[in-house]
TrEMBL record:
Gene Ontology CC, one term: cytoplasm
Coiled coil: none
Sorted UniProt keywords: NADP, Oxidoreductase
A Pfam family matched in the record: Aldo_ket_red
GO molecular function: oxidoreductase activity
Record's protein name: Putative aldo-keto reductase 2
Span of domain NADP-dependent oxidoreductase: 24-222
Protein origin, superkingdom: Eukaryota
Gene3D superfamilies: NADP-dependent oxidoreductase domain
Length: 246
C-alpha cells in the first residue's frame, strides 16, 4: 500500500486499482489554459509515488493532448506501475462534436489512443458517451474483439442508463461505470448504482467533491454563512416592509 493509498478490486472481473484515482482532464482542458507539460508530468509522477496509480484520461481531452501528455509521463518504465484508463465515443470533425459508437470508429479510436499513449494496451477502456443510433450490443461487440486481441484489458461505460448497462453486460462483462456522484449529484442512486452492485460492476465517481464546491474548506463555510446572513437580511427587510404596509 504505497503512500498509504488503499488498493481495491474494481468490479468483479479482476482489475485492481488504487482506491483514489487521478483524473488528468484538467491538466490539458476545460479548467483554464493547458498547464506546462513538465509540471504536469512531475505531478503525475508524484501521485504515482504516493500510491495513486489509477490514471484517467480520454481522447477528447484537448482533444488528444491529454493522452499525449500521459504518454510522455508513462515513459521509462512508469507504465508498469499504473492502471491506465482512457475513453472513446466523442468524435470531433470540422470543429463539431459527435457521439459515435460504430465498430469502425471504436477500433480506430482505440488504435489512435494506444499510439498517443505509447502503450500496447489500456487497462480500462470506457465508452465516454452512449451513441443512441448504434445498439449498445454492436459497440460492445467490437470492444469484446479488442479485449480478445489484448489491446484492451477491461471494458467500462460512462454516463450510461441502467438498461444500457444491463444490455452491454450481457454481451461482455462490464468492469466499471463512471458517473458523477457526490452530495451535490445523487440521482444515480435510484437505478444506476443498484444495477451496478447487482451485476458486480465497479463504480468510478467523478467530481465527488461537487466540482470543487465541497473542497474549499473554510471558504465553503464562510460562503455558506454569508448566504444565510444575506437570506436573513432579506427576510427581515420583507417583514419590515409588510409591517409598514399593514
Amino acid at each position: 500500500m504505497a503512500g498509504g493509498v488503499r488498493r481495491i478490486k474494481l468490479g468483479s472481473q479482476g482489475l485492481e486499482v488504487s482506491a483514489q484515482g487521478l483524473g488528468c482532464m484538467g491538466m490539458s482542458a476545460f479548467y483554464g489554459a493547458p498547464k506546462p507539460d513538465a509540471d504536469m508530468i512531475s505531478l503525475i509522477h508524484h501521485a504515482i509515488d504516493s500510491g495513486v496509480t489509477f490514471l484517467d484520461t480520454s481522447d477528447m481531452y484537448g482533444p488528444f493532448t491529454n493522452e499525449i501528455l500521459l504518454g510522455k509521463a508513462l515513459k521509462g518504465g512508469v507504465r508498469e506501475k499504473v492502471e491506465l484508463a482512457t475513453k472513446f465515443g466523442i468524435y470531433f470533425a470540422d470543429k463539431k462534436m459527435e457521439v459515435r459508437g460504430d465498430p469502425a470508429y471504436v477500433r480506430a479510436a482505440a488504435e489512435d489512443s494506444l499510439k498517443r499513449l505509447g502503450v500496447d494496451s489500456v487497462d480500462l477502456y470506457y465508452q465516454h458517451r452512449i451513441d443512441t443510433t448504434v445498439p449498445i450490443e454492436v459497440t460492445v461487440g467490437e470492444l469484446k474483439k479488442l479485449v480478445e486481441e489484448g489491446k484492451v484489458k477491461y471494458i467500462g461505460l460512462s454516463e450510461a442508463s441502467a438498461s444500457t448497462i444491463r444490455r452491454a453486460h450481457a454481451v461482455h462483462p462490464i468492469t466499471a461505470v463512471q458517473l458523477e456522484w457526490s452530495l451535490w449529484s445523487r440521482d444515480v442512486e435510484a437505478e444506476i448504482v443498484p444495477t451496478c452492485r447487482e451485476l458486480g460492476i465497479g463504480i468510478v465517481a467523478y467530481s465527488p467533491l461537487g466540482r470543487g464546491f465541497f473542497s474549499s474548506g473554510a471558504k465553503f463555510v464562510e460562503k455558506l454563512s454569508q448566504m444565510i446572513l444575506e437570506r436573513n437580511k432579506l427576510a427581515r427587510k420583507v417583514a419590515h416592509e409588510l409591517l409598514l404596509i399593514s
